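dumping these here so i dont lose them again. two proteins, back to back, each one seq then structure tokens. dont judge the mess
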Amino acid sequence: MKKTLCFAIPAVLWLLFFLWYTDLGGPLTREEIDQFRAQLILNGANDPRLAMVTKFMEADTGDDFVMVNGLDMKDAPPELPATGTGAPAQALLDHYMEFMLPELLSRACHPIFDGRSVFGPLDNVAVDNPPRWDRIALMRYRSRRTMMEITTNPAFGDRHDYKLGALDMTLAYPVEPALNPADPRFLLGLILAVIALGSHAVVARTTK
């Protein structure tokens, strides 16, 4: 019985994590897309953004993805109610993330990487005046469904103004990973497998 539990408990823990971390609902349905579109319209989305986001939803594969963010921080951000006069760009961005992080983490979305640029582009093919980003950030989203749940929240618009106020320029590019050895589902599976094998060895030794 003890030997069985050595494998059963880690397996159950991994399965519970997998079910939380993975959106098993498949691609967005037409009904879901229409509901999200209606909420975007209520939130005041302009026609070009509405059309772009609609195409993004209609092309859904149901998989998770990583948003690659290029950020060019403002030297003199505007005065906004929550941050006041003379606040640095990072303060505005922190106010935005104060809302975003709980929304993200509760839906198995999270930062993967955040780093500051140390030099301009070292490789450039047929791109005139390529932007030089101050920072690059990678954010994992469980699915497009999950992203839309966050961004159609009416509270998102007010906080998003702080992100825009902090930046001279930004680019957000969604990418679906083809290979990701750092996927927590894979890493947790390895860790739990090692724990299970170790526990089994200890139990086997003590029951001889």
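---- next one ----
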Amino acid sequence: MKKIVFIFLSVLLLSSCKKKDDSYFNISILSTTPTTLQEFQENITVEIEFEHNNGFMGFYDPDYLSLEVKDSRLLNADYYHLIPLNPPNSELEIKGIIKLEIDAPFILGSGNLETLFFSIRIQDREGEWSNEFSTPLISVSR
């Protein structure tokens, strides 16, 4: 019986010594407004909730663009700078909300109505990308 307890304790001790993957970086959408608009009339506001357990969001270099916003109608994404939320060389869990304002969209084709959505993700200072999410469909009319 003592041998079984010793083996169990050994396995428990070894499993607790293994390095865990503590990296957690997640974003989600809270709201997108408006979802129906006339071209050039209103900007779109997207509220993004974020959580990073090490706080590595945002870059100290203002030229580094880490917020990716891609219009579903276009091939290339737009990139924006996010400022860091914690002091250099520190690991603090951060949670919060980013209020992103996207310039008023316009119709690319010759019709009177187009629908689009935006795909959004964020890169942290370790080069890891968050999960990607998409806004609901947005209708733009002339």
